[in-house]
Amino acid sequence: MSLCLPMASGCAAGSSYSRSGYSPPSQAYAGSVAQPQSVQEVSVASVASVSTESTESGSSGGDSDEAPPSEPSADAPAPPPPSPMAQAPARPPASREAQAALGNTVAHGATTPATATTTTTAPATARGPAGRTTPAPGGAANNVTAPAVAEATPPAPMLIYTAAVDVSVRRAEITATLDRVVDLAYSMGGYLVQRTDAQVQVRVPSARFREGVRRVEEMAEVLHRTINAQDVSEEFNDLEVRLTNLRAVRRRLEEFLARAANVAEALRVAQELERVTQEMDRIEGRMRFLRARATFSLVTVTAHARSEVVVAPDPLPGSAVRRPLDLPVVWLERLGLGRLLQLR
Amino acid sequence: MTTLRRLPLLLALSLLAPACASFHVNTPSGFAELEDDSRYDYRATNADGVVIAVRVMRNEPEASLEFWGRVVDERLRRQGYTPQGNPEPVRSANGVAGVMFRYGATVGGRAHRYQVAVFVRGKKVYVMEAGGDTEVFDPAAPAVARAFGSFRT
User: Fold this and answer.
1) ipTM of the complex
2) What is the 3-state secondary structure (H, E, C) of chain A?
3) Spatial CA neighbour of B55 closest among A330, A50, A257
4) pTM of the prediction?
5) B23: which of A78, B40, B74, B119 is 20 to 30 A away, CA to CA?
6) Could you read off the pLDDT of A22-70 as tens digits, one per residue?
7) What is the pLDDT of residue B76?
8) Cα(A261)–Cα(A256) distance, rounded to whole angstroms?
9) What angle do CA A80, A84, A85 make, to 5 degrees?
């Protein structure tokens, strides 16, 4: 077991996340896709200086929390922060299927506020050949999103952001704190995924991911935080290509079916047609899943009851009672069997 | 194209690598390392619930091993942990000086053992803990000792 621990001085490799702040989704993915890129993982711990990475990987097509809320666009967010990636083009021409899939996203109400914003502020949006939109830096105020720029810069990656924030609050305030997290998610156009006594999972639009995490961190003392960015561009790209190929295969099969000489031949072609169609459905489901994950970022907030500080009484003059050292060091409070043996 | 775009990330990683604080622990036989443990930098348990863990903290306020050892000891005594023997000077596998404390404690009406070793190296404080019900901890003590002996910063 060997770990590389990110230090506050800048060990959060591959990111600009630091003790005082970070800038994770500089490019907020809002339905756009990009060329393959390696997984970027950003991990920071505020106190312990260490974090473990929690890469979320969903199965194809359907988690229960995939469906976004029905009224996210009501709260139109500010444009995402300026970023070089935000100027990226929306990739090379994509298939009609991909465009149709994007259309599905809109139809399902999964369009992030960012998408809505970029759609309504066309001059600030770099629209790719496939019709995908990538938020431009500065939002509507920035009109320098000429196609020429889009052609020259690399495409934006498709990133799935997740954040896990452990906060310390008084035991009596745990419920209220988690309530505030849920309220925050709804106010940002997100939604509740899961809630337990001491933990809540919400999804917020990726365009507002940074803001969401920051506002969560303002609610209570942060013990530990982990930010993870999973790049699924390559997988998405592969799926698109496979889908395109399968569509071509299906068209040919349909032609064969129309020209089948007898029933037996028609049955064989029909079986193959069914197999191809099922494969296409599976791929489309996975693409929808990835798109949904990239559109809404998962934020997990775990509330830990803070040890109540018991101030020792001032020793009386001449008393033998000594006031114990009470350093403001959080990790000292976590020593001992209670936490060590708690495995869940 | 992909390689080219990975280049900045790889460069950043290579530049930052020397700044990383790292440690190493051999997970002893019969123990399983718990992945994705947000509260510890390393934690492993055996089937009986004996747990070994490591945490790395900033050395803030910056202080010596003696200071942190005494602070940890004092804190645990205040929490009701009963020292078992004197503090033991120890060294990590790579020669970093540390101090180990052993305690007894009652949890849920049952006797437990708890031991903690503290190492200080530069800007980091390394705390290695182990504990469990006495009934299961004692048989696992050799494995725990091996894990502590393998620790290096």
Assistant:
1) 0.83
2) CEEEECCCCCCCCCCCCCCCCCCCCCCCCCCCCCCCCCCEEEEECCCCCCCCCCCCCCCCCCCCCCCCCCCHHHCCCCCCCCCCHHHCCCCCCCCHHHHHHHHHHHHCCCCCHHHHHHHHCHHHEEECCCCCEEECCCHHHCCCCCHHHHHHCCCCCCEEEEEEEEEEECHHHHHHHHHHHHHHHHHCCCEEEEECCCEEEEEEEHHHHHHHHHHHHHHCEEEEEEEEEEECHHHHHHHHHHHHHHHHHHHHHHHHHHCCCCHHHHHHHHHHHHHHHHHHHHHHHHHHHHHHHHHEEEEEEEEEECCCCCCCCCCCCCCCCCCCCCCCCHHHHCCCHHHHCCCC
3) A50
4) 0.38
5) B74
6) 344 444 333 333 333 333 333 333 333 333 333 333 333 334 444 444 4
7) 92
8) 9
9) 75
Nearest by CB to B20, which of A5, A14, A166?
Answer: A5
Question: Please, are residues A339 and B49 in contact by the beta-carbon 8 Å criterion?
Answer: no
Identify from B2, B20, B84 which residue to disrupt to test chain A contact, counting A C-beta atoms within 10 A and taking the largest count: B20
Chain B positions touching A41 (Cβ under 8 A) are none
Among B42, B58, B131, select the one facing A49 at the smallest CB separation: B58
How close, in Å, is residue B95 to chain A by CA atoms?
17
First to last CA, chain A: 20
CB contact under 8 A, B131 and A337: yes
Task: Specify whether the CB–CB gap between A206 and A297 falls below 8 A.
Answer: yes
Provide the token pair at A176: 């209220």
Q: Inspect the interface and report whether the beta carbons of A343 and B19 lie closer than 8 Å.
A: no
Instruction: Report pLDDT digits (tens) over B13-61.
Output: 444 433 345 899 999 999 999 987 778 999 999 999 999 999 999 898 8
CATH topology of domain B22-150: Protein Transport Mog1p; Chain A (3.40.1000)
**What's the rounded Cα separation, in Å, for the pair A137 and A210?**
15
Residue-range domain boundaries for chain B? 22-150
The 10s digit of each residue's pLDDT in B101-146 is: 999 998 888 999 999 999 999 999 999 999 999 999 999 999 999 9
Among B27, B58, B119, the residue to mutate for chain A (most A Cβ within 10 A)? B58
Which residues of A, range 191-210, sit inside 8 Å of B by Cβ? none
In this complex, do B39 and A339 lie within 8 Å of one another by their Cβ atoms?
A: yes
